[in-house]
Structure formats: C-alpha cells, structure tokens
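Why does residue order matter? Because the sequence determines the fold. Keep that principle in mind as you read this record.
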Amino acid sequence: MKDLLENVYQLSIAVLLLCSVISVRLLKNLKRERKLSSFEYTMYLIIRIAIFLWLVSFLLIHYGASFT
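Structure:
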C-alpha cells in the first residue's frame, strides 16, 4: 500500500511539473505578444521560482548524499 501511495505521489508531482512548464511557456509566448498583467506576471515569477526550487531540492535529495 505504501508503494502505491509513493507511486501516486511521484506521478502527481510529475503532472504538476509538466503543467507548470506548459504554463510558463504559454505565459512566455503571451509576454511576447503583449504586456502581462500584474497577476500574470506574478504567476509567471512564482511558477519559475517553484520549478527552480523543486529542481534544486530534487537534486539535493537524490544526489546530495554523494556530495557529503
């Protein structure tokens, strides 16, 4: 049961990450066409920061043990 929950958790993170990347791409394309509203710009920044933080934490969790 625990393995199933861990797999569902990892799948949900993958889906959220994919949706985040797609959202950033759409906002980046929209930014080329016109100026983003304050809400869109804030969302653009927050999603980019969240993706970066996820990547750093993922690398530290999976490969950080080899650095110490």
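The two ends are 32 Å apart (CA to CA).
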